[in-house]
Amino acid sequence: MKKILVFFLVVFTSSVFSEITIIAIVNNSPITLNSVQIKLLEANTKDEQILIVDNSIDIILQVQKATELGITPAKRDIENVLNDIAQSNNLSLQALMDFEDFYYIEKEVFEKLSILNLQRFFTKDLIVSEEQILTVCSDKNVIKDEKQIKIAQ
Questions:
Q1: Are 12 and 27 in contact (CB under 8 A)?
Q2: What pLDDT is recorded for position 151?
């Protein structure tokens, strides 16, 4: 009887600890198995799983850089995006906040806004001449029936 109790105790605690298993540490920021588990389950190969972990590492590094440069989103910006998410799902903001996984939604919004701010920061002074745009986006090498979108200033 004691062996059965010990067995269930070991199985139960291992399942609890698997949720907080750290699979990578990036500049003192851990990536837990729980945070990428859904994406990892969708992956079909080891290469896809490695790519998922690499993407998580990239996101952490970008958010850290945005924090270092002081360009993280304001609380008001996060709330505006959360309001948009709630409205697009026919929910109130409070109903969205009541979800068990709301922390992950808020975290993802913070990460995406931080990365967007970082992109804007690095491209704000980027100047591309019309000649460069026409050269890079020329239609000289267009295959028949293929459409090309030119990006203009």
A1: no
A2: 45
